[in-house]
């Protein structure tokens, strides 16, 4: 147990040492509390941790900070100590064999799709009766209320059959591995409707007009995303708090705490409410070291095409120049668990050969150059699987957790698809809530507002 010698009052127990739990523990320690921090894994970090490959701290999949993250006090603090890099965004959308700059412009999309598919999609957007009204309703419909019509209907109604069939359906099938009609409309709201399509195009036009638009750049810590975790660990160590790793906290442990202060729980909700019917999907990461100074300029390739197993591929050094070894470059290939299930190995034998071939066909990896090393890591609990009707289960699970004396926060416990800065902001809210002496019941009543958080890619 790590206690701050001069800390006062009842001990605060924080579970989960991802960014949410670490930041909550730090805020509590700074408020003069005795803090105990439990982590199930061997190391802190959660999804913001690193896989050390070829001596480099590789992110667990493509991570970047939206410039708006700098409005959040934690990120301002880290930035003040070790300034983030500001990087131009050089993403690429891989459509078949064509590459379209991402975020895309309307003309580049049309060029890539070809005249026929482009015209069908354009007509789909504008011609269907009620389309304008559907766009107008886009923002209003994001409020989680009423009937869940499902992903398929929600998206088709708004973007038309052609756009749905070309992008949204294959993407949803690849990531989730269940028929899109069984997915909740929440997936569309969170993953796709960052804002309405019309607003997005307006924003893109502004970005191309030269304004310092947030879509055209991102910020990134020079030492990789896990350097934010290292920063938090260092500040916590100064406050006398260390995460106890290899220490899972579950339902049984909660029972033993009757009468104690609420547990700030940023772990996996399923550990507290095992019958909640709220599943996650994981992600296979395949790290490939190529004997090349660089394979391309894009930092991320987005690949909705169902012929390719991966949804995204990133080249590490294009996030931060320090993340490279001389004469070598690392690609991180993200293969959603989707319909594969767990226990596959994509980093050896035939699957690796097939994967390398796909990377060449997608125009990402060089032809005739074999990687010098390949390594796979499977990351569980990455994406909440929002099935139709999940919200009722979520509400019941939140009530159960609160009744047990736990205050769920963070991505896994709140069943959220959210960014790092959202996690930090929610952790600060959770700490303020317990410090004000408020109950877990009051917290879960208000927690529904976090469901509307929009993930930014
Ligand atoms: C591929 C990928 C790309 C991403 N890209 C971006 C991006 O570009 N920008 C961005 O801002 N964000 C991005 N994110 C999101 C960001 O990484 C997460 O939102 C954030 O790291 C979640 O932090 P967390 O602490 O809430 O949860 P987690 O990181 O999941 O941490 C939870 C911790 O709790 C532990 N735990 C679970 N159950 C228990 C238990 N019972 N007892 C003890 N410990 C437990 C886990 O081991 C884990 O360490 C991305 C995430 C992924 C996976």
Automatic annotation (TrEMBL):
Could you list this entry's UniProt keywords, alphabetically sorted.
Membrane, Transmembrane, Transmembrane helix
Note one Pfam family from the annotation: NAD_binding_8
Transmembrane stretches in the record are 12-31
Q: Which GO terms describe its molecular function?
A: flavin adenine dinucleotide binding; UDP-galactopyranose mutase activity
Its GO CC terms? cytosol
Q: What is this protein called?
A: UDP-galactopyranose mutase
